[in-house]
C-alpha cells in the first residue's frame, strides 16, 4: 500500500494526511474548499516546524513530508490509483453516503474505503457501496500526529482480510490500533460521552460547580483535562449529536442528553469554537486575564 487519498482537509483530514506523508506514503488530500486545503497545508507546515524545533524530525524529513502531499478539489482526480481512501469530511450522514456512493463508482474494485466518522454507522455507509466487505472505520484521535490510538471499526460485512490490512497499516504509522465492532458510538464515544453527560448533569442538578467538577476529575482521576473543559474543546454541538446517536441507537434513556446541554447548544454556546461554553474563551476575557497578570 503506497498511495492514499484523504477526503477533507479540516482538523482531522490534515492530521491524517500529515501522518501518512511523514511515514513515506504518497497522499492525495482532497477538499471541496480551496481555503480548507490552504489552511490544512499551513497547519501541517506549522506542526512540522514545531517538531523540527523540538529536534524530533530533520529539515529534510519536513521537506519530504510536504513533498509527499498533493492537493485536489475533485474526488475523481484525487482518488485515481489509490489503494486506500480515508474519508474525513464533515460529520453529516447524507454527505458521507453521497461520497461513498461516488467513491464506489470511481475507485478500483480493490481499493479499501475507510471513514474517520465519530458516530455514523459503518454498516450504513457500507450499504451504499457494492463492496461492503472493503468498507471499514479508521477512527483517529485529535491531534492525529500525536495521539496513538486508532479505533478500527468493523462494519457488519467488513472482511477479516481488510481488517487485518488496516490494523497492520496503523502499526506502520506507529499507532496502536484496537479492533471494535460497529455499534452506536463504537467504544471511544460510547464511554466518553456518557461521562461528559454525567458531568453536565452534576452541574445541572447543582451537585457542584464547573471548577469543582473538573478539579475532582483532574486531580482525583488523573484526567489531563476536566470533563466540562473537554466538552468545550470537542464542541457542545458535537457532544449533543453523538449523545443523540447513542440514545436513538440503543433506545436506552441512560444516554438521553442533559437538558442543560441541549439549552446551551440552542443558545449558541458551543464551547471554544463559539467563544463560550462552560468556560469563557472570548477575546475580552483573554485580554482581562493578560491585564491581571500585568497588575499582579
Ligand atoms: N474533530 C475531532 O476531534 C474528531 C475526532 C475524531 C473523528 N472526527 C471525525 O472526523 C471527520 C472530520 O471532522 P473534522 O473535525 O476534521 O471536521 P472539519 O469541519 O474540521 O473538516 C471537514 C472538512 O471536510 C470538507 N468537506 C465537506 N464536504 C466535503 C466533500 N463533499 N468532499 C471533500 N471535502 C469535504 C470541509 O470543507 C472541511 O474542510 C468527521 O466525521 C468527525 O466526526 C473528528
TrEMBL record:
Residue ranges annotated for the 3-hydroxyacyl-CoA dehydrogenase C-terminal domain, each copy included: 185-281
Q: Which GO terms describe its biological process?
A: fatty acid metabolic process
The site (Important for catalytic activity) lies at 139
Q: Which domain of life is it from?
A: Bacteria
The record, for Pfam families, names: 3HCDH, 3HCDH_N
- Every 3-hydroxyacyl-CoA dehydrogenase NAD binding domain range: 3-182
Family the UniProt entry places it in: Belongs to the 3-hydroxyacyl-CoA dehydrogenase family.
Official protein name in the record: 3-hydroxybutyryl-CoA dehydrogenase
